Amino acid sequence: MSRSRTPHRVVVVGSGFGGLFATKALRRADVEVTLLDRTTHHLFQPLLYQVATGILSEGEIAPPTRDILRRQKNARVLLGNVKTIDLQAQTVTSTILDTTTVTPYDSIIVAAGAGQSYFGNDQFAEFAPGMKTIDDALELRGRIFGAYEMAELEADPLELDAWLTFVVVGAGPTGVEMAGQIAELSRRTLKSNFRAIDPSTTRVVLLDAAGAVLSTFGDDLSTHALHELEGMGVEVQLHAKVVDVDAHGIEVEDPDGSRRRLEARTKIWAAGVAASPLGRHLAEQAGAELDRSGRVLVERDLTLPGHPEVFVIGDMMALDGLPGVSPVAIQGAQHAAKQITRRAKGSGEVSRPFRYRDKGSMATISRFRAVASIGRLRLRGFLAWVAWLAVHLIYLTAFKNRFTALMHWAVSFVGRGRSERTATWQQVSARTRLQRLEQGDSGRR
Ligand SMILES: Cc1cc2nc3c(=O)[nH]c(=O)nc-3n(C[C@H](O)[C@H](O)[C@H](O)COP(=O)(O)OP(=O)(O)OC[C@H]3O[C@@H](n4cnc5c(N)ncnc54)[C@H](O)[C@@H]3O)c2cc1C
Predict the structure, then answer these.
(1) Any catalytic annotation for residue 177?
(2) C-beta separation of 392 from 47 below 8 A
(3) How do residues 54-80 score in pLDDT, each as one tens digit?
(4) Does the model's pTM come out above 0.70?
(5) What is the helix, strand, coil percentage profile of the chain, to 5?
(6) Taking CA 432 as the corner, what is the angle to CA 429 and CA 436, rounded to the nearest 5 degrees?
(7) Which candidate in 32, 60, 177, 420 is catalytic?
(8) Is the CB of 145 under 6 A from ligand 1?
């Protein structure tokens, strides 16, 4: 059989943990990689909450993808929102503004991640932004710091309480981190900043429909985190199901079925994820199944059933109940890249099964306080926080970002300042305005 002179064409969808690590793992392979993403950056999602609470700048956690890959000659980066992946024609169609691009592939790695899920109540998003993108984090930053500005102007005591009440929905790692940071912000950072209000009277409420905080960390660490949060003045309300959200507050249903209202201007949604709709798009063409979060049930080698040329990885894939965390995306990326490299060489058509090595999980509660579960090891307090710091520094992309993040952490954790508190009206209001435009309300009335 004559060998084609054209290199094997690989399309990678997504420049998150899965997409970027897959592209990097293909750097020595005899392939041509096209990395497509609707953003121009690689986002380090685990630190979004630090952008939202004024510790880090967005550039530190979202460096430009094309700069990261500038030395990788076999890779090109294209901006585009992927609309369709045609499994028959083996092409990907993406658009940006008025430009449509069709990119053919021999192999494809789909790593488009997941979005926020409001469990069928998407109308909540306007009043309780989630935390998945840089836009989300900047909007939340504007809402959090803006709430104190409004409180300083408020004469009505009930309204004042509503401005100084922050409700975080979801007591997983992101919710715990957000609640802890807002508590710390109000007790340390904003001290002496205002004249009419006392920010240390801020009420931070962390809600969850389940019965534990950080439930995946096991009983010991979960109870420890709960006590730490309460010690910091965070009100933890468990078995509390959110049934409605509006501009002024949130309605909660307790286990006995009774409903109550919390007046709070600032709500943050840190509960629930839904895989990228590209998962459904692929599954429908291939006759594959999806799980409850819309993740594609992949084969053991991470390919789409019936399509050995299509890998689905990271937050979009469902296999053996693996969680939606960055090590799963990174290891899946490296696995997919290895299979493609072997195929491009023409060596061994039989794909190997993916084996995940669990590296544990960790969550910060506030400065110097964290919990970590690594194998049989359970760490808490300062030691866990140092482990968290080290891991995040290693995985932050680019030396410059690591250096400036370390400087900002010194300012915020050793001192009490936060240098990234800038927020603009556009950041706070753009989502609502854009949604109205999309719904056809052009503001002409
Ligand atoms: C707030 C937060 C905190 C987290 N904390 C931790 C943590 O502490 N530890 C941990 O291990 N994990 C954490 N995670 C989870 C971790 O970030 C994800 O598991 C990981 O990012 C998944 O990688 P991925 O490549 O599948 O998706 P992502 O990293 O989400 O990347 C998806 C990419 O696809 C792009 N994309 C999506 N749709 C399209 C489209 N149609 N066209 C073009 N591009 C598209 C997106 O722009 C994005 O760049 C956290 C997640 C969040 C949101």
Answers:
(1) yes
(2) yes
(3) 999 999 999 999 999 999 999 999 999
(4) yes
(5) 40, 25, 35
(6) 135
(7) 177
(8) no
Please count the other Cβ atoms lying within 10 Å of the Cβ belonging to residue 214: 24
- Asked if residues 200 and 186 have their Cβ atoms less than 8 Å apart, the reply is yes
pLDDT in tens, 273-310: 999 999 999 999 999 999 999 999 999 999 999 999 99
| Contact status, residue 55 vs residue 61, Cβ threshold 8 Å | no
Please list, in sequence order, all residues whose beta carbon lies within 8 angstroms of the beta carbon of residue 80, skipping any fewer than 6 positions away: 36, 37, 38, 94, 95, 96, 101
DSSP state for residue 41 in the 8-state scheme = B
What are 221's two structure tokens? Answer: 């660490």
CA–CA gap between residue 278 and residue 294 (Å, rounded)? 9
Whether the CB of 323 sits within 6 Å of ligand 1: no
Ordered structural domains, the chain, with CATH: 3-116+274-345 (3.50.50.60), 122-271+360-426 (3.50.50.100)
Residues in CB range of 304: below 8 A, 6 or more apart? 87, 282, 283, 286, 288, 296, 298, 310, 311, 312
Terminus-to-terminus CA distance in the chain, angstroms? 68
Are 21 and 333 in contact, with CB atoms under 8 Å apart? yes
Cα separation of 65 and 57, whole Å? 17
